[in-house]
Design goal:
Elements lengths: L2 H6 L2 E12 L2 E13 L4 E5 L6 H9 L6 E6 L2 E2 L7 E4 L11 H11 L4 H14 L15 H14 L4 E5 L7 H18 L2 E5 L3 H7 L2 E5 L6 E6 L19 H17 L2
Parallel strand pairs: 3-8, 3-9, 6-7, 7-8
Antiparallel strand pairs: 1-2, 1-4, 4-5, 9-10
Helix pairs in contact: 3-4, 3-5, 4-5, 7-8
The chain binds adenosine-5'-triphosphate and magnesium ion (MG).
Adenosine-5'-triphosphate binds next to strand 1, strand 2 and helix 2.
């Protein structure tokens, strides 16, 4: 990959802070934060509830404006949502008037992708997230976990260069969660995407990521920035769940769990 391409998709935050002004007073959600995320990184963000993880993700998505500081992707300032940055929200946000398949095909339809191609892609994605038999249903006919999977498929259908995910697997059963974790890793690896992933699970963060950020309690700031190297990473294949049994995995997991525990104080 050329340096120019890598730089085009580099995410750079400079002194980014966010304060919410509400009727009951101001809430400082994010302290001034500097952060550089390179193209192709898989960065997880963990930290106590209310520490500003969703705030940070919404800033990256362009759904919120910072109170101060600047966010750039390459040369471009983030000043609103973009199809290049796909967001999987903490609570599913599907279009209620469209079927599950209609939701998945919404982005491609807006881009003018022809019907046959759209259909083939939505078939593939429905299958990937295990919703092959409910494509014709409306979102309200689905369970919470199914809606979440439909939301993931809808984001993937847009083929964004940067994927922002806010606890996307939190509501899923263990087996589905593990399947989607491995699929996400495969997709990230094959397509050379950047992923920023918020989770409460240290285990999930370590398993998925090339880098884990730990945030302090509110007002959030990044207190640990840890690179994750696991056995087999250099073998140029997607990690599989067996790595979670290795001493290296357990060591980094307990180190980060301790950091999060300390962050609560
Ligand atoms: N729209 C808003 N208006 C006012 N305050 C907000 C708003 N959104 C978030 N906050 C406050 O900002 C702080 C950070 O919230 P945020 O949702 O970013 O936390 P979080 O780390 O994602 O938490 P969780 O792990 O529970 O999802 C909290 O104190 C919250 O009350
Ligand atoms: Mg949140």
């Amino acid at each position: 990959m050329s340096t120019a391409v890598a730089q085009r998709d580099r995410v750079v935050l400079t002194e980014v802070a966010k304060t919410y002004d509400t009727a009951t007073g101001a809430t400082v959600a994010l302290s001034p934060t500097d952060l550089v995320i390179e193209l192709g990184e898989f960065v997880s963000i963990v930290g106590p509830s209310g520490c500003g993880k969703t705030t940070l993700l919404q800033l990256l998505g362009g759904f919120l404006a910072p109170t101060s500081g600047a966010l750039l992707v390459g040369e471009d300032r983030i000043d609103g949502p973009s199809p290049d940055r796909g967001v999987v929200f903490q609570a599913p946000t599907l279009y209620p008037w469209l079927s599950v398949r209609g939701n998945i095909e919404f982005g491609p339809r807006c881009r003018g992708v022809d019907k046959r191609t759209r259909r083939a892609e939505s078939d593939r994605l429905l299958d990937l997230v295990g919703l092959g038999d409910v494509g014709a249903k409306r979102p309200y006919e689905l369970s919470g976990g199914m809606q979440q999977r439909a939301q993931i498929a809808r984001v993937l259908a847009n083929d964004p260069r940067i994927i922002l995910m806010d606890e996307p697997f939190g509501a899923l059963d263990q087996l589905t969660r593990e399947r989607l974790q491995v699929e996400l890793l495969r997709l990230w690896r094959q397509a050379g995407k950047t992923v920023v992933f918020v989770t409460h699970s240290v285990e999930e963060a370590v398993f998925l990521s090339t880098r884990v950020l730990v945030m302090s309690a509110r007002p959030g700031r990044i207190i640990v920035d840890r690179r994750i190297d696991l056995p087999g990473d250099d073998a140029d294949r997607v990690r599989d769940l067996r790595v979670t049994a290795t001493p290296e995995f357990q060591a980094v997991k307990s180190e980060l769990a301790q950091a999060i525990y300390d962050a609560h104080r």
